[in-house]
Amino acid sequence: MVGTVASYRRVIALTGPLLPLVSFLARLPVAMTQFGSVLLVAETSGSLATAGIVGGGLSAGQVLCGPVLGRLADRHGQRPVVLAAAAVNAVATAALVAGALGGLPTVPLTAIGAVAGASVPLVGPLARTRSVALAHRSGAGEDVVGAVHSLEGTLDEVSFVLGPALVGLAALAAHPAVALGLAAALVAVFGTAFALHPTAEAAAPAPAPVSTPQAPRGGRVRHPGVVYAVRGSLLLQGAMFGACQAGIAALTARLGVPGQAGTVYAAMGVVSAAAGLALGALPARIGLRLRWRAATAAALLLSVPLLFTHTLVPLYAVVTVLGAAYAPHLITAFSLTERAVEPARLAEATAYAASALVAGQALALAVSGRLAEAYGPAGAFAVAVGAAAAALLIALGARVPAARTHTAGRAFVPARRTAPPQDASPRPA
After folding, report:
1. Residues near 5 by Cβ (< 8 Å), separated by ≥ 6?
2. Cβ 303 vs Cβ 385: under 8 Å
């Protein structure tokens, strides 16, 4: 426990205490906009189908354009990309509110939603990329890099629990438009603050190296097999998220307590965040391959009881315990991505990983919703179990590099924030 606290303190010493706070507030709008857009359009149009179409357009924009923003950040630096994306996203979100309140038809409203999704500033992936760069360039060891991934994963989990909760409270107290207005303000203020933070220089693009027969051009991925396997695993975890959402909504509605759906899902998120934070306590000798297999095996084992859950209290118990498998898998997946790609491609690679998660969730939510209507909550939960089984098969079959095969650049240390260099020698996986 003492070692874990020390690792997180070293992460904060590298980033400064303000960066985690700013990045957390800047990533909140992602979760708020997705949920809030569905509530807003459903209320203003009176049609859940229209709300689903607009929400789908928002997800599609994020999935398709997230990797493009990541590549631009790798090539031109995070600051200009995040500044531009935050500005466009704030305007698009405000336009979505105005269009919904003004009764705009479905097609133009969906187009605005797609722009809002396409301009999500990727603060989560870019914050992870930036903090990893700081850790490597300061000479920190794998324990600190692991703590970076754990902290960033926890911030992601908390944001995806708190975001929908804020939307729900705003909808109950006033109107869903208030929640989306708050999301636009948050992304404008804190997205800009994240872009302007001095640590943005840590992820600045390095000068292009001279191409040689031995040196791959353009920061090529060193282990494409594991990178694609991880993306497939994240796609399946997204499918678990979407299927669980549909199953929880179906079961709580059947029990006559639909308002409990958000609370059940939030309980899962809280436990997931706690498990992610505790992951920093694992020693580096417990490698990424073992962690990946353990997390996917736990997800399968803990999801099977969902098929036999028919009342509210067991639903709370099963879903809450299942949350303990989620954050460890997410954190391990991003750690594997960071290990397998060159630093010059890290923002793009993490953006692809995040897009895979969003795509899996959107697809599974649509499919499992229909299954829940036809076969009850167990139909949706069966999708979650199947996705967990497929993720375990991927983890068992993938070849994971024993150690990172690239080196970091020279150290960048923000003014008046120094940290003593640590042993940066690679450790076995």
Report:
1. none
2. yes
Torsion of CA 276, 279, 284, 289, to 10 degrees: -60
Q: How many CB atoms lie within 10 A of CB 281?
A: 15
Question: In this predicted structure, which of 14-23, 402-411, 416-425 has the lowest mean pLDDT?
Answer: 416-425
Name the nearest CA neighbour of 87 among 79, 76, 98, 75: 79
pLDDT at 327 over 70: yes
Mean of the pLDDT values across residues 98-113?
94
Task: Determine the number of helices (DSSP H) and then strands (DSSP E) in the chain.
Answer: 14, 0
* pLDDT bracket for residue 400 (50, 70, 90): confident
- Reduced 3-state DSSP string for 243-283: HHHHHHHHHHHHCCCCCHHHHHHHHHHHHHHHHHHHHHHCC
Q: What is the pTM of this model?
A: 0.81
Is the pLDDT at 207 greater than 90? The verdict is no
Task: Give the number of other Cβ atoms within 10 Å of residue 277's Cβ.
Answer: 21
Residue 156 lies in a domain: yes
Task: Tell me the C-alpha distance between 231 and 313, whole Å.
Answer: 34
Tell whether 133 and 6 lie within a shared domain: yes
- How confident is the model at residue 319, as a pLDDT? 93
Task: Give the count of domains, the chain.
Answer: 2
**DSSP H or E run through 232:** helix 224-254
Which structural domain range is residue 170 located in?
A: 1-205
Residue pair 380/369 in contact by the 8 Å Cβ criterion = yes
Nearest to 300 by CA among 237, 374, 360: 237
| Domain shared by 327 and 350, yes or no | yes
* Single-letter amino acid code for the residue at 87: A
Q: Looking up tokens 């500044």, which residue turns up?
A: 83
Residues 368 and 288 reside in one and the same domain: yes
Quick one: 268 and 159 in the same domain?
no
